[in-house]
Amino acid sequence: MFMYCWGAKCHGQLGLDDRTAGTSDTDTDEPDSNKGDLVSTPLEVRFFRRRDVCAVACGLRHSVFLLKDGTVYTCGSNDKGQLGHEMHGRIPGQVKALETCVIRHVACGEAFTVVTAENGTVLSWGDDSCGQCGCGSEDREPKRTPRFLKRLSMHHVVQVACGGAHCVALTKGGRLFVWGDNTYGQLGLGHTSVKYVEKPTEITSLHGLPVMRVAGGGAHTFVVSVSGTVFGWGRNHCGQLGVSDTKDRSQPTLLKSLRTQKVKFIACGKNHTAALTADGGVFTFGAAADRQLGHSSSSNEINPRKVFELMGSEVTQIACGRCHTLAFIPKTGRVLSLGLLSHQQSTTRPAYRRSMSTPINISGPWAEGASTQNNLPNETPKHHKSTEQSPSEQNRKKLKEFQSNVDDEHGVLELESDLNEEVSIPEVVSAGEDSAEEMETDDIANHEVDTDFGRLRRGLRTRTTGETQDETKEERRVREIFSGGDHCFLAATFAKASEDVVDHREIPIDNHIATIDAVFMDTLEAASSTESLSEPVMSSIEEVFSSAACLNASFLKTNDEHFGSSRQNHGMDLDAAREQFRRLAGKEAVVRYVSI
């Protein structure tokens, strides 16, 4: 697994070491005010080179990393205790208070963090000035260590999303709970009379709606049903709710214009929203001052509008930061950027920085296809390999000869002036940072390259990569993109790896509400052969049969016929429901328990 990053780094939120500013060479016209604060081209976060990161969440000035084994690392600003530890914030540190928990999901607000454990419990820490930690505390002081949300202890939470200072959680039983700041009605409780809600409170107006996704923006909230119905609420001064006006909403409001678009996923920025459809289309709406909507305009959009520049491409992932949007197209292997990061962090060319109103390609050491759909500008010049030994290859040979004389403590080798000449390179090699614990096993030279101009940088580093020489040549592919605040992350794997690329249109089984499916029926059939039902089976039965949302999600018409459901089109396969209940009727133990 390889983790790459770009964007704001002034608070250490990228997890990079302080030893490198992270910007390109001085002759790239990068403003002095940006040097040291911005990473303008993707760099590798070497701390995670030998750690399997499965998810990343970004706050305004901090980041949270979830490993496959359930451990959590954080970095960045810790002014409100949002890191959950007191270690140096510029290098990822483990949240050791979570060592007894197996964490499966992470989320961030502006300055607080929320995680869900394998057993469905929820923990939070950080800024609690608006009750966003959900602990029920009235002191509003920052919570510097993780705390359980007792109000949710009786529920198995499968999803949680954070806004700037509020949260929304979805339980396995299909119930929605919210807490935190309610200034603009972002909790969806139908009022703003209570400004802060310190404990998780259920949204009763959506009872029976089988929710598939939850999302939080600066001060607005969205949910998407299994049939693609979209409801939004909260602040709407820029049109970020997409309901044809700029009035705030304190209760869930249907986005009628997206009803037939088969929406699968929603991502929210501070004041804008992006929706991903089943066919890979992207709709954006809300604030556009930083061109984050991708509509070649800085005018706000109060209605969902399809991103014209992405039409013809099948997008499978989207992510939003404060004032930017990312999109991933697997067919071409390209990551596209819209908005603030497009003209500040993703390129060092002044022409693009001044006015980039359409999506641009974020180039990095991952494989990209030959397709040039939409004629999007590619920021990294492509150089053809030559059969002759190139100057850069000669430099690498020299570097290898000098390796035995490298200062192991600092891992830096100063070369003669002939290595500082501008040379054309046959491939892009990403620069990056190490953690102190990894520097002791240095064995491979890593060439820092200005990816915009193709120059070898001075002070070539020989810190470890943890790879063999064959592995450094192996193609990498994008697995998943993450964004928040003013920074971004990208997880990549070897192209030949068996690990699947993430598709935001598909929902992981662990994040889904309970339904009567084949697995559920098999479990009941096996359990009904005994005289008494086990506790887990009884819990599953209660969860499904006590929830209209779970039942509604259980018998949907196939082939996407349930999309666009309404009062006139319920979208349910009644024949399938009849057949499943007929099977259940023959299970005496189940019928007896349900009838109690």
Automatic annotation (TrEMBL):
Start and end residues of each stretch annotated as Disordered: 344-424, 431-450
Keyword flag Repeat: yes
Bias-annotated ranges (Acidic residues): 434-443
The UniProt record lists the keyword Disulfide bond: no
Domain RCC1-like: 3-351
Keyword annotations from UniProtKB, A to Z: Repeat
Residue stretches of each RCC repeat: 1-69, 70-119, 120-173, 174-227, 228-279, 280-331
Gene3D superfamilies: Regulator of chromosome condensation 1/beta-lactamase-inhibitor protein II (2.130.10.30)
Pfam families reported in the protein's UniProt record: WD40_RLD
Feature: compositional bias, Polar residues: 344-361
Cross-referenced InterPro entries: RCC1-like_dom, RCC1/BLIP-II, Reg_chr_condens, Signaling_Regulatory_Domain
Name of the featured protein: RCC1-like domain-containing protein
Organism listed in the record: Patiria miniata
